[in-house]
Amino acid sequence: MGSTCVVGLQWGDEAKGKIVDLLCDDHDVVVRYQGGANAGHTVVHEGMTYKLSLVPTGILRENVEAVIANGVVIHPPALLKEIASLQAQGVNFEGRLHISDRAHVILPYHLAEERLTEESSSAADHLGTTRRGIGPCYKDKLGRVHGVRIADLYRPADFRERLARIVEYKNRLLNAMLPDFEPFDAAAVAEEYLGYAEQLRPYVCDSTSKLHEAVAAGRKLMFEGAQGSLLDVDHGSYPYVTSSSSSAVGTAPGSGVPARCIDRWIGVVKAYTTRVGGGPFPTEQDNEIGERIRRVGREYGTVTGRPRRCGWFDAVAVRYSSRVSGSTELAVMLLDVLSGIEELQVAVSYDLDGRRLDVLPASLADLERCKPVYETLPGWSEDLTAARTWGDLPRAARDYVDYLGRIVGVPASIVSVGPDRRQTILVPKDR
Ligand code: IMP
User: Which residue, by CA, sits nearest to atom 5 of ligand 1?
Assistant: First the structure.
């Protein structure tokens, strides 16, 4: 026991990387269990800024091992590029990065398939994805016939033969659907990927057994969620979600480690809400408030650079995702961004055609019609970035954090007032 899961409770970008980095000192192994290079973490560590996408944040600590587990989808060129750029910043990977031989591989036709849905079809069907081939790769994983796993890359003859059949199928499909489509050359793709496999060889292993051994040896694991719980394919705002179990429910299938091995479940939230890409967002502020939050919080996508949509804290959505993810505590991030706003609003329920809703409805059409019912709280004018203890925060900021804990049903244990490790406040239990 003693293992932890850190997961976002909103639509991603909750600054989970900072929490994972902070808690690394108390853990031995950091595990990514779903998603792929659609995720982007920025971590400021000892004055250096690191951009992480597929590589778990734990890699920044010499004494921590990092695992990319079976639930992740890997685009080998993207991963190799990330490894090279972190190595150029002085990060040591030797014996510390482990990649599951069961993880699925993103191939070039996955990117083309995503273009097909995101560009060529009716605008109403566009999801606003990160275009990293994530959805098409998971589709092939669940479809089984065309899925390719990391282990397959180490049986070259079988891989070449099978890829020839898959590519023939994909070429026929894409040729019929995409104007100006250049067919893929199966042999060339196979050689390219066999080359990547050689470069990745030192890291590839049976990560499931490795994690079981770590648990048996009493080592502490930290599961690092990517995206957020509201983007979970089952429990999020479907179909405007990612294609994996991005809430905490994904830890077991995505790593092979049973949930009973985890006892601390940290739900990370921003003090407000953001969302990138399409989909319903009941508390969105497409106005001066939203612009102010975007400007002060520098709310632009780490992966795609897209401006994030911004709005008030949505306690209906977070209460729901916190239950799904089984949060035992909240980390409230970016509280400093709200300084100077006279009155803060928090959505406490939704109004759906005159009916009061306390949870997210399943139907997209219903969620789009939900009107938030707000509670208004007093804001504060003080700059919070120099606060280091709970007592350093102005009364209204403390009350706001306590209110979020009460309305979500899970108390806050950590508050963040800036990107640096020192800009972190541990919330006292007896207050
Ligand atoms: P996909 O994961 O690229 O298929 O994109 C599906 C949806 O998830 C889109 O709305 C993306 O903007 C969103 N998304 C994917 N990854 C992240 C992330 O790391 N942060 C925030 N949103 C994300």
Answer: 129
